[in-house]
Amino acid sequence: MTDLNARLVAALEELEVERAARRRAEQANxxxxxxxxxxxxxxxxxxxxxxxxxxxxxxxxxxxxxxARAMDAIHQSTETQARLVEELLDVSRAISGKLHIExxxxxxxxxxxxxxxxxxxxxxxxxxxxxxxxxxxxxxxIGDASRLRQIFDNLLANAINFTAGPGRVLLSATREADTVTxxxxxxxxxxxxxxxxxxxxxxxxxxxxMTRKTGGLGLGLAISRELATLHRGTLTARSxxxxxxSTFTLTVPASPREATLPVVxxxxxxxxxxxxxxxxxxxxxxxxxxLLLAQAGAVVETASSAAVAREKLERARPQALVxxxxxxxxxxxxxxxxxxxxxxxxPAIALTAHATATDIERAHTxxxxxxxxxxxxxxxxxxxxxxxxxGDPRDRDDRDDR
Length: 402
What we know:
Blueprint: H1 2-58, H2 64-95, E1 104-107, H3 108-125, E2 128-134, E3 140-143, H4 145-161, E4 167-175, E5 179-186, H5 209-214, H6 220-230, E6 234-239, E7 246-253, E8 275-279, H7 283-295, E9 299-303, H8 306-315, E10 320-323, H9 332-341, E11 348-352, H10 357-366, E12 370-373, H11 378-389, H12 393-400
Parallel strand pairs: 2-4, 8-9, 8-10, 10-11, 11-12
Antiparallel strand pairs: 1-3, 4-5, 5-7, 6-7
Helix pairs in contact: 1-2, 2-6, 3-4, 4-6
């Protein structure tokens, strides 16, 4: 009888384990479905905006005022899409351990001031005051300027989205011997005590009513915490409860010295008669790049495939190549590898939607000097072309002869 009871208890325990596993699987499926629905909504909404405003642009009876509104709406919608895609990629990189940063001395005051300035207008439209308190200077920290800015953008966007006007968003910083601490406090919605342990988890906000109203996928805080960890710092949150505001605290290592950063060349300088060959099988991308590069002063030719590009290279040698990677028949990696093998060493920029760490490594291995992920900042493309061919126009002809 004792043996029978033991087997019965074991069977019941096994059954409960199976039931718990089934419940977890069902919950995971529900969360997956909710997340996919949120992704679908967040991507479809800006696409809808773009397509509807595009009809306004095509209407010859539309006024210049409507045209200006359409351009603003399309620009904002494309930025929204780009941000969502980048957030998804960052989370994927973080999960796979491939989210990397470059740790160098960074002027944190400049990063903070730029972030506040970027959100001033949005805060004003919601009747919010956004300002900086505390020590006048944080000085330099060890970090990655663009990634630190990403953290501040996420935290300020959250503070503004979840604070109803009139209200305040205050940023304050203190510096100790080896650490800089930054607090971003708001007078907004606050966070329930039960929710605090989970707010940095990816996707945990996907079914949150307020998050659905303000948009987004609930990824910003998860990415920000991962970036803080990569900076050898921390990101924490505290709140007095619902409707009592929130405070997010970021700590990062201070730089032991006030470093002098290199002077960055202006991104809007013209490409004075630089000869550029743009290679992309997407005629829309090829056409608009040719137009914009010509407006920046370049002499531009285009090619819709690697084969067409070779024909044009036989007739005339450009000073720079801008090449897509995913092309039919022959991809950009193979195309450039064959050029390099044949002894042709024209500076080349990979302009591609393939943007993982592996894609970047493959592009450099193939011979590309620069990898730029779509969607691109056109000014960054101009800057890279300018640097690759030699910033001083007097040096460009010398570069051609090498």
